[in-house]
Specification:
Radius of gyration: 23 Å
Subcellular location: Cell membrane
Bound molecules: adenosine-5'-triphosphate, magnesium ion
Family: Belongs to the ABC transporter superfamily. Drug exporter-1 (DrugE1) (TC 3.A.1.105) family.
Distance between the termini: 36 Å
GO biological process, one term: daunorubicin transport
GO molecular function, one term: ATP binding
Order of helices and strands: EEEHEEHEHHHEHEHEEHEHEEHEHH
Structural class: alpha/beta
CATH superfamily of the largest domain: P-loop containing nucleotide triphosphate hydrolases
CATH class of the largest domain: Alpha Beta
Number of strands: 14
Helix content: 25-40%
Number of helices: 12
InterPro entries: AAA+_ATPase, ABC_transporter-like_ATP-bd, ABC_transporter-like_CS, ABC_transporter_ATP-binding, DrrA, P-loop_NTPase
Number of domains: 2
CATH topology of the largest domain: Rossmann fold
Largest sheet: 6 strands, mixed
Strand content: 25-35%
Strand order of the largest sheet: 6-7-8-3-9-10
C-alpha cells in the first residue's frame, strides 16, 4: 500500500464540468483505491477525458469536489501535480527525436543528471520492448511503439498516480497486449492507475474496480465480476455451414442456454446472450454443452465462440439502450433535471 493512510488515490463527489450548455462531467462520484488499476468505462463523449483533465488539474471544475491523495485539485493543485502523471501531457514526445533522446530529455527536465537519465531511459526502453528502436526517430514508430514510449515517458519519475486515457484505442491485439503488460508492471511498482477505456474486456483484465460512465455520471460501479453479473457472462456466437440448419440450431441453443437466440442478418449466424450469473466458468461450461449438443444433432458448425459482453451489451443491460455518442448535441433540459 502507499504511504498515505486513507487508501483512496482519488475521491470525487458531485464533480461537474460544463462546456457552454454541455455538461461533460455531470455529478461524478468516484472513489479510487490507491495501489490499484481503476477502470473508467464509457462510450465516446461520456466525459472520461474531461474528468481526467480535471483530476490532473488541467481543467478547473465548475462544481463538486475532487481530491487526489487527499489534496483538493483546485486549492492544492501543486501538491496534486507533484504526484500525478498523464500520458500525452508530460509525455509529449518529439517526433523528430529518437526514443532514447526523448526519454533522456524528459529525464533531464525532471531533474535527473545525464548518466542517471540515460540509465533510466535504457531501463524503460528495455522493459517496454523498445531497445531495438531506441535510436530510431519516433516518427518512424508504429502506433503501438509510440503508445509504449508515451507510457515510458510518463513513468520516468514513478508517479503515485498515472492517468492512462484510452491507451489502447486503435492498437492491434499484439500491441494492446504489450500495453496491458506495461500497465501491470507499473501497478506492481505501487503506482495507482486510472485507466479510461471503451472496452469492457480491457477493464476486466486490468482493473480491480470499474466505474461505467455515461453522460458525465457513474451509472454502475463495482468489480468486473459484479459488473458482468449484472450484464450477463457473455455472448455465444455461432456460424453454421448450412443456412438450412439455422432453425434447428436456434432450437438447440435456446434449449441448452435457456436464453433468447438472435438470428443475425448473415443467414448462417446466430448469437445468444448467456446469463451465467457472471461466472465465466459456468458460461463456458454451458457454451461447451451447447456446442456438443449441436454436434449431436448433426448440425455443422463452422465457427463457435464465447465472447465477453461488449460495451454495447453493458449499456443495453444497464440503461436499456446502446451507448449514444453525444458530441456537442444539446441535451434536452429535462434529461438533466430528471437526473439531478
Ligand atoms: N474543450 C471542450 N470544449 C467544448 N466541449 C468539450 C470540450 N472537451 C470535451 N467537450 C465535450 O464534452 C463531452 C465529453 O467529452 P470527453 O472528451 O470528456 O469524452 P470522452 O468520454 O473522453 O470521449 P472519447 O471516448 O471519445 O474520448 C463531449 O460532449 C465533448 O464534445
Ligand atoms: Mg476521451
Amino acid at each position: 500500500m502507499r504511504e498515505r493512510g486513507t487508501g483512496l488515490a482519488i475521491e470525487t463527489s458531485g464533480l461537474v464540468k460544463v462546456f457552454g450548455k454541455n455538461r461533460a462531467v455531470d455529478g461524478l462520484d468516484l472513489a479510487v483505491p490507491a495501489g490499484t488499476v481503476y477502470g473508467v468505462l464509457g462510450p465516446n463523449g461520456a466525459g472520461k477525458t474531461t474528468a481526467v483533465r480535471v483530476l490532473a488539474t488541467l481543467l478547473r471544475p465548475d462544481g463538486g469536489e475532487a481530491r487526489v491523495f487527499g489534496h483538493d485539485v483546485l486549492r492544492e493543485a501543486d501538491a496534486v501535480r507533484s504526484r500525478v502523471s498523464l500520458t500525452g501531457q508530460y509525455a509529449s514526445v518529439d517526433e523528430d527525436m529518437t526514443g532514447m533522446e526523448n526519454l533522456v530529455l524528459i529525464g533531464r527536465l525532471l531533474g535527473h543528471k545525464k548518466p542517471g537519465a540515460r540509465d533510466r531511459a535504457r531501463q524503460l526502453l528495455e522493459a517496454f520492448g523498445l531497445t531495438d528502436a531506441a535510436d530510431r526517430q519516433v516518427k518512424n514508430y508504429s502506433g503501438g511503439m509510440r503508445r509504449r514510449l508515451d507510457i515510458a515517458a510518463s513513468i520516468l519519475n514513478t508517479p503515485d498516480l498515472l492517468f492512462l486515457d484510452e491507451p489502447t484505442t486503435g492498437l492491434d491485439p499484439r500491441s494492446r497486449n504489450q500495453v496491458w503488460d506495461i500497465i501491470r508492471i507499473v501497478v506492481a511498482h505501487g503506482t495507482t492507475v486510472l485507466l479510461t477505456t471503451q472496452y469492457l474486456d480491457e477493464a476486466d483484465r486490468l482493473a480491480g474496480r470499474i466505474a461505467v460512465v455515461d453522460h458525465g455520471k457513474v451509472i454502475a460501479e463495482g468489480t468486473p465480476g459484479e459488473l458482468k453479473s449484472s450484464v450477463g457472462a457473455g455472448t455465444v456466437h455461432v456460424r453454421l455451414r448450412d443456412p438450412g440448419q439455422r432453425p434447428d440450431a436456434e432450437r438447440v441453443l435456446a434449449k441448452e442456454l435457456d436464453a433468447q437466440v438472435y438470428l443475425e442478418a448473415d443467414p448462417v449466424a446466430l448469437t445468444v446472450r448467456v446469463a451465467g450469473e457472471g461466472v465465466e466458468r459456468e458460461a463456458a461450461e454451458q457454451a461447451a454443452r451447447a456446442l456438443s449438443e449441436l454436434a449431436a444433432s448433426g448440425i455443422v458448425v463452422d465457427d463457435f465462440s464465447l465472447g465477453q459482453p461488449s460495451l454495447d451489451e453493458v449499456f443495453l443491460a444497464l440503461t436499456g439502450a446502446p451507448p449514444r455518442e453525444d458530441g456537442l448535441a444539446d441535451h434536452p433540459a429535462t434529461s438533466e433535471e430528471t437526473a439531478a
